Amino acid sequence: MTKPVTTPHEAVAPVHDGATVMISGFGGSGAPIELVHALIDQGARGLTIVNNNAGTGQVGLAALIREKRVEKVICSYPRTNDARCFTELYLDGKIALELVPQGTLAERIRAAGAGMPAFFTRTAAGTELAKGKETREIDGVLYVLETWLKADFALVKADRADRAGNLTYRLSARNFGPIMCMAAKTSIVQVREIGEKGSIDPEIVVTPGIYVDRIAHVAEPVQEEALFRAGARYP
To answer: What is the pLDDT of residue 1?
Structure first.
């Protein structure tokens, strides 16, 4: 099946108010800045965002939060080098936070893509993060029951795609991208390079095209760190 190739603004058009949106990235590595900025322009509100952190500076996810489009953040690291946009709203009680240990966050996303509604983990057992959750002792060790984490949309940054939607990633920019594509009803991926079907060796495909719904071509993607160092602000 040939996947449509669009601009970032066309790609995020289906995102609706109140949607749960996963955004790839480990810090700035793999962050789909162009898609997030297009989402700001698009105007969707009341979003629940699933990300490793809560944004840095005044661009990307931080800008989406600053514009008060986000109702809740589910993440592992809400504090970054400059998380003022999230911090100010959180301290004012204007945005909710669900704090999830990083390994648990990744496994909850992966579980959704694999069709596993729940799993037990030792992480967070006996801590504040386990309050209100089912626990079970197995072989003398206390475990916490965690549930899968699904989304309406995933915004992901990859490096290359073919017209069938098969993806490869660049180094650590891979991070949460593959599992987010699997866990979302609609995955929206920005890529630097697009080739014809068969142009990517099947042996190096990371995300099969069956998990990709919409592709946006961004030939020269910006890096969140570079924007932050330059003091950039969006919009």
So the answer is: 81
Which alpha helices (H) appear in 92-167, and where do they start and end? 102-114
pLDDT at 81: 84
Q: What is the spatial distance between Cα 24 and Cα 154, in angstroms, rounded to a whole number?
A: 8
As a residue count, the chain comes to 235
Cα–Cα dist 204/75, whole Å: 29
Run of H or E including 9? helix 8-11
Looking at residue 115, its pLDDT comes to 98
The answer to whether the beta carbons of residues 8 and 38 sit under 8 Å apart is: yes
Mean pLDDT, contiguous 10-residue spans, the chain (235 residues): 93 98 96 98 98 97 98 96 95 98 98 98 96 97 98 98 97 97 98 96 97 98 95 96
pTM for the model stands at 0.96
Maximum CA pair distance of the chain? 54
Tokens, residue 226: 């570079």
DSSP string, 81-146: TT-HHHHHHHHTT-SEEEE--HHHHHHHHHHHHHT--EEEESTTTTSGGGTTS-EEEETTEEEEEE
206: left (phi over 0), alpha (psi -120 to 50) or beta: alpha
Q: Which two tokens stand for residue 173?
A: 């920019």
The torsion angle over the Cα atoms of residues 84, 66, 185 and 170, rounded to 10 degrees, is -50
Kindly list the structural domains of the chain, giving each domain's residue range(s) and its CATH number in brackets, ordered by start.
5-116+149-229 (3.40.1080.10)
- Strands (DSSP E) along 62-113, which ranges? 70-75, 96-99
